[in-house]
Amino acid sequence: EEKSTMKIIVTGGAGFIGGNFVHYMLDRHPEDEISCVDCLTYAGNMETLASVMDNPKFQFEKLDITDREGIYGLFEREHPDIVVNFAAESHVDRSITNPQLFLETNILGTQNILNCAKIAWTTGTDQEGYPTYRSGKKYLQVSTDEVYGSLEDDGTYFYETTPYAPHSPYSASKASSDMLVKAYIDTYHFPANITNCS
Questions:
Q1: Quick check: is 81 catalytic?
Q2: Which of 58, 78, 99, 112 could form a disulfide with 169 if both were Cys (CB 3.0 to 4.6 A apart)?
Q3: Are 4 and 76 in contact (CB under 8 A)?
Q4: 76 an active-site residue?
Q5: Segment 116-147, tens digit of pLDDT
């Protein structure tokens, strides 16, 4: 049977996890189309994507997730079904040196993508006044286990119910972006999920 084509925006797709996700999706779901955006800071490496650059189902755009017009234009052109947000400033040591950059990218960048997706996917409102969305749309926030703080050496684990306890500007910025996603889910009934990679 023919699978329907999904259009996916992957942010931070030239990074380590994002790049591996792009390869995985193109390999497992060759019918899908992927638009990859990355602003190619220290964490982005185009060599990660070299082998897929000629794939007709893949396109790359150098773009910062805090660029409101740029991201909205991408939604207008691509009409994505799914957005997977890997884009983040991510090194704890760097966050200690330059915390403002982490807040701008990880919090304001996430809010920018959320808002562009909400505008692009909204079809109207329901009886209670909440936005309604085109069917099959999903936003995935790729977060980190560091939002939960530090594990002790006593064999305990983090769970999804573990209270957030960030200890660095990096983990605080990721916790903040998670809270923004949760706020969009609650306030706007926005179709989103959060994963906390470990």
A1: no
A2: 99
A3: no
A4: no
A5: 999 999 999 999 999 999 999 999 999 988 89
